[in-house]
Specification:
binds nicotinamide-adenine-dinucleotide, 41% helix
């Protein structure tokens, strides 16, 4: 029996799909706690055929179920959440799942004496950035119930660290993309939208001048950061996980035109748009996790286009 077992909430989801194989390679047993509202049943069923993965199909809102699932685990990765879109449409549900869920998971981890908790936080805790690149010590101004719950999650980890000595890392993921992502993903749906148009021979349509930007980080790179955060010598901090590169929507359109290989030019829709930009300062991830991204946006998008070919 391996002596390392991870409780992985939200382990049926998109990013988890890339983290679980790395955990298994490193000799962890994985206990997924997921209510499977958005989980990938086929993938989880393949994993549970092996002795090293089990599925506890429960909801993070139920403290007793979370506590029971945490028993015997040495590590916790907490990913279960409802997304930004849903949190704006239904703040009650979002606060219920995200806030209560965070607390149930962290309290159980503290009570069961797990060695490390890794929490999926989000770059959205910053709100509109005051400067680029965005640094972990910058002011946080979260704008939606989802972002507010991510920030509160980080604060709760601080509470359990002081109160019960829990060891944690909160990873502030930037704009994650890659194979297996659901089409309606909040920030990155623009990628799928452009790819679909290009495959139909149509130009991508850009509002304004396409100056708004995102820091696109490939899910393979991101998955490595989760495992490193589980094992790092230093802990108890939020850590940005991005690439440090802000890719404008206009550049993204060009990158995808090349990746799909069609002869079109983007079409610009003249209108006023609020230009928001994103880029992570990743010096802390380098220093504490020894992590840095290896997949450029050009390589990652080309791979995505190949892997999602109809
Ligand atoms: N994808 C991104 O760009 C991004 C960016 C920043 C942060 N994050 C965070 O990373 C984590 C993983 O994101 P993802 O893109 O893989 O999301 P996802 O929606 O694919 O996965 C979330 C999983 O949580 C499960 N879940 C939802 N509500 C639950 C509940 N009440 N109880 C138990 N399980 C429940 C879902 O069934 C799903 O399998 C999330 O915490 C998310 O907020 C993601």
């Amino acid at each position: 029996m391996p002596d390392k077992t991870v409780l992985f909430t939200g382990g049926g989801g998109f990013i988890a799909g890339h983290v679980v194989p790395l955990l298994l390679e490193r000799g962890y047993r994985v206990r997924i706690l997921d209510n499977m509202t958005r989980g990938n049943r086929e993938r989880v069923a393949e994993w549970t055929e092996t002795a090293d993965v089990e599925l506890v199909e429960k909801d993070v809102r139920y403290g007793g179920a979370v506590r029971e699932a945490t028993r015997g685990c040495t590590h916790v990765i907490h990913f279960a959440t409802v997304s930004i879109n849903k949190s704006i449409a239904d703040p009650h549900e979002s606060i219920d799942i995200n806030m209560t869920g965070n607390h149930n998971v962290f309290a159980a981890a503290a009570d069961e004496g797990v060695r490390r908790v890794v929490f999926a936080s989000s770059a959205s805790v910053y709100g509109e950035p005051q400067r680029l690149p965005m640094h972990e010590d910058d002011e946080l101004r979260p704008l939606t119930p989802y972002c507010i719950s991510k920030r509160a999650g980080e604060d709760l980890l601080g509470f359990y660290e002081r109160h019960k000595g829990i060891s944690w890392n909160a990873l502030r993921f930037f704009n994650v993309y890659g194979p297996g992502q659901k089409i309606e993903a909040y920030y990155t749906s623009v990628i799928n939208h452009f790819i679909e148009r290009l495959r139909a021979g149509l130009p991508p349509v850009i509002d304004g001048r396409g100056e708004q930007s995102m820091d696109f980080v490939h899910v393979h790179d991101l998955a490595r950061s989760v495992v490193l955060a589980l094992e790092s010598g230093r802990a108890n901090v939020p850590i940005n996980i991005g690439t440090g590169v802000d890719t404008s929507i206009a550049s993204l359109a060009k990158i995808l035109i090349d990746a799909v290989g069609v002869d079109v030019q983007p079409r610009f829709n003249p209108r006023d748009v609020l230009v928001s930009r994103r880029a992570a300062d990743i010096s802390r991830a380098r220093e504490i996790l020894g992590w840095q991204p290896e997949i450029s946006v050009e390589q990652g998008m080309a791979e995505l286009v190949r892997k999602t070919a109809p």
